[in-house]
Amino acid sequence: MRRNPLIPFGIIAVLGILTMFVLGWVGTSQHEAIQNGGEETEQASSNPEDIFQNNCSSCHGADLSGANGPSLKTIGSKYSKDEIQDIIINGKGQAMPAGLVPAEEASILAEWLAEKK
């Protein structure tokens, strides 16, 4: 008895269509999670030193002395808390990119840096 030579192609086609449905459903779920503000992301840190070490120290040095970016040891004597927060959120020039720190953490970090005089 001869088998139909199209059966393997039919099985592959059905598996492909099922895979596309599964990947589409997973992608839609991820898109919705992103649209909802990424509820699965980490909560904002409340320790300004941790925020600095995780986001800023690679450019400004672990001890605020500067590396690729300027020193921040006396940044509080140059800028107010609000000005520092604006720089953290919106960036400054080409060297300081915008949006490295979420707004909640930017406020905590700016308050801490404003005390550096």
From TrEMBL:
Positions of the Cytochrome c domain: 43-117
Signal peptide coordinates: none
Keyword Lyase included in the entry's annotation: no
Protein name: Cytochrome c550
Entry superkingdom: Bacteria
InterPro entries to which the protein is assigned, alphabetical: Cyt_c-like_dom, Cyt_c-like_dom_sf, Cyt_c_BACSU-c550-type, Cytochro_C550_firm, Cytochrome_c550/c551-like
Any Pfam family: Cytochrome_CBB3
Keyword entries, A-Z: Electron transport, Heme, Iron, Membrane, Metal-binding, Transmembrane, Transmembrane helix, Transport
Coiled-coil blocks: none
Species per Swiss-Prot/TrEMBL record: Thalassobacillus hwangdonensis
Gene3D superfamilies in the record: Cytochrome c-like domain
TM segment ranges: 6-26
